[in-house]
């Protein structure tokens, strides 16, 4: 006797909520029906929807949507942790971005979330020795979203990039879990050295808009980097730094700055 089929929406509360929100969106704005159906409601899982969305956004005359979708489908199928990371990123954006009121928003509209998921496919290609294809994904993400992430960079889960314009993350950079950053952040090198030359960002770090973190330095967990700062030295855990060059101006102010998204210094100045 054949086993009964179980639709994923019955066992996956996140995907079920996404589908429910999508139905409401179509009712509220019928003109978006084609977009919402093709991007969400025609799919049986988050991984399928992400593969479609990534391929649609990155397709060009150089590489078709069909080929890119096959690549993304292969990555999600071979590495289920990519889907886990995507779900964690999605919830992170929903919980931390004051402009995000529904789970469908990052998937459909937010280039920070979309770029990170495309990077994850490129990183999977890189780890599997398919470097040229990974470089192609990097190039298209940069051209389409204005976000340049080297496919060899290591980025954790629960990442929220708000506004996400002009983000640069270098080849040997490491970003921990539950990190939040705003637009125009650079995790870069300081010269032409060809070794481990990029920052290591700990878990729970909040990086303000326009901050530049340069060189093979470590930013301790749950620290805050004020907007416009230039960080050139290691930062201890749970501190706030500001300035050019950045210096410690106080404690982090809370245990999870990347979650609270509180960027005001208040009485942190020493």
UniProtKB/TrEMBL annotation:
**Segments forming domain Serine acetyltransferase N-terminal:** 14-118
Q: What is its EC number?
A: 2.3.1.30
Which CDD domains does its entry note?
A: LbH_SAT (cd03354)
Report the catalytic activity: L-serine + acetyl-CoA = O-acetyl-L-serine + CoA
Q: What GO molecular function terms would the record report?
A: serine O-acetyltransferase activity
What pathway is this protein a component of? Amino-acid biosynthesis; L-cysteine biosynthesis; L-cysteine from L-serine: step 1/2
Q: Does the keyword Acyltransferase apply?
A: yes
Keywords carried by this UniProt record: Acyltransferase, Amino-acid biosynthesis, Repeat, Transferase
Asked if the Swiss-Prot or TrEMBL record annotates the protein with the keyword DNA-binding, the reply is no
Xref: SMART domains: SATase_N
For this chain, the family text in UniProt reads:
Belongs to the transferase hexapeptide repeat family.
Quote the protein name from its UniProt record.
Serine acetyltransferase
Q: What species is given as this protein's source?
A: Parasulfitobacter algicola
């Amino acid at each position: 006797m054949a086993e009964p089929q179980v639709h994923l929406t019955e066992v996956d509360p996140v995907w079920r909520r996404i589908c429910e929100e999508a139905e409401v969106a179509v009712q509220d704005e019928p003109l978006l029906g084609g977009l919402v159906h093709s991007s969400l409601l025609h799919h049986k899982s988050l991984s399928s929807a992400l593969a479609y969305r990534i391929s649609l956004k990155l397709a060009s005359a150089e590489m078709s949507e069909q080929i890119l979708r096959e690549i993304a489908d292969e990555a999600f199928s071979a590495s289920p942790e990519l889907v886990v990371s995507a779900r964690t990123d999605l919830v992170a954006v929903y919980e931390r971005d004051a402009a995000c009121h529904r789970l469908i928003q990052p998937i459909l509209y937010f280039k920070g979330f979309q770029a990170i998921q495309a990077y994850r496919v490129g990183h999977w290609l890189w780890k599997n020795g398919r470097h040229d294809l990974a470089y192609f994904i990097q190039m298209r993400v940069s051209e389409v979203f204005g976000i340049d992430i080297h496919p060899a960079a290591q980025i954790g889960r629960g990442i929220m990039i708000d506004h996400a314009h002009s983000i640069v993350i270098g080849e040997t950079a490491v970003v921990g879990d539950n990190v939040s950053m705003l637009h125009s952040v650079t995790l870069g090198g300081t010269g032409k050295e060809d070794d481990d030359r990029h920052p290591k960002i700990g878990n729970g770090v909040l990086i303000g808009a326009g901050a530049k973190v340069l060189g093979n330095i470590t930013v301790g967990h749950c620290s805050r980097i004020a907007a416009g700062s230039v960080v050139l030295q290691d930062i201890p855990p749970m501190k706030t730094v500001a300035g050019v060059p950045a210096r410690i101006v106080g404690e982090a102010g809370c245990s999870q700055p990347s979650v609270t998204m509180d960027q005001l210094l208040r009485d942190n100045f020493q």
